[in-house]
Amino acid sequence: MTRPEDVVRALLRARGTSRPAVTRLQKERRRRSLRRAFFFVLVVAGLSGLTAAGGRGWILLREDSAFAIRDIQLVGLNRHAPAEVLSALRDLKGRNLVVLPPEEVARRLSAFPWLKGFLCRKHLPGTLLVEVEERETLCAVRTPEGTFEIDGTGFAWKAPPGTGAHFALGPGLDPSQPQVQRVLVDLLRLGLHGQVLSLEAEKRGSAFALKCADGWTLVASPEDLPAEWERFQRARGWAEKYAPDRRTADLRWPGKIVLRPPEPESAHTAPAPAGEGGTDHG
């Protein structure tokens, strides 16, 4: 049987042997905590130094005259001379290349509707390279103000010297007007270049008068020109046979065409019954 004094002695021996181990563990934990705190301080100090150095470096980049724009290069032009575009960008020389925003270039290039887009490339220390893309030309039109090229989406610009025109536009018609370009697109799709010579504004409403090479004048709507042209072709033979003196056809009436008298009237021409200028052909 174990005596009480033997139990006490065993407990005292166990306590005496565990104290050094506990002490070593505590010291190791304290050393780890100190190392972590030291590394944390080093990281914070390093980041603060880098931030300060970066801020100072950015200020130097923004203010250093070594990065002033000295040369502007333009690439990508095929049909237009670069002199006019370079002249619009010339005032950028001397500006800091590092902080120059693309909006500064875009504002100057917006004066050229034949430019579809651009891309700026900065070559340090002082070269600005501008890559541009020209719009695709659909056709050229002759106006009282000169010859213009259009792209079919609402953009028009002065054509280079010597450009031949596909169609003529009457006074008051803007070549960049969406409705005008819609009609021109349809005329080209229908293969009417050479058959339709000019496009004029109709006196009444938003229609257009198409002047044809064979003497016909067709009043058409820009919204449905292909269907109206087809309707005119079906009724053309009848009109030339029974009303040869009438060469103006209003194609805007659904299911028929209306032949106008040789002299235009001031009032709006209503569809006339057969035998009085109107037909049910079409």
How many strands? 13
Q: Estimate the helix proportion, in percent.
A: 25-40%
Note the quaternary state here: single chain
Overall outline: elongated
Separation of the first and last Cα atoms: 128 Å
The SSE string, one letter per element, is: HEHHEEEEEEHEEEHEEE
Low-pLDDT sequence parts:
265-282
**Main sheet: strand order:** 6-5-4-7-8-9-10-11-12-13
Number of helices: 5
The radius of gyration over CA amounts to: 42 Å
Estimated share of beta-strand residues: 15-25%
Mean pLDDT: 82
Structural class: alpha/beta
Sheet with most strands: 10 strands, mixed
Written overview of the protein:
With 282 residues, this protein is of the alpha/beta class. The protein contains five helices and 13 strands. The strands form two sheets. A ten-stranded mixed β-sheet has the order 6-5-4-7-8-9-10-11-12-13. A three-stranded mixed β-sheet has the order 1-3-2, with helices on one face. The protein is elongated. The C terminus is likely disordered.
Please write out the topology:
Blueprint: H1 4-63, E1 71-75, H2 83-89, H3 102-109, E2 115-123, E3 127-134, E4 139-143, E5 146-150, E6 156-158, E7 167-169, H4 178-189, E8 196-201, E9 208-212, E10 217-220, H5 225-242, E11 248-250, E12 257-260, E13 278-279
Parallel strand pairs: 1-3, 4-7, 7-8, 10-11
Antiparallel strand pairs: 2-3, 4-5, 5-6, 8-9, 9-10, 11-12, 12-13
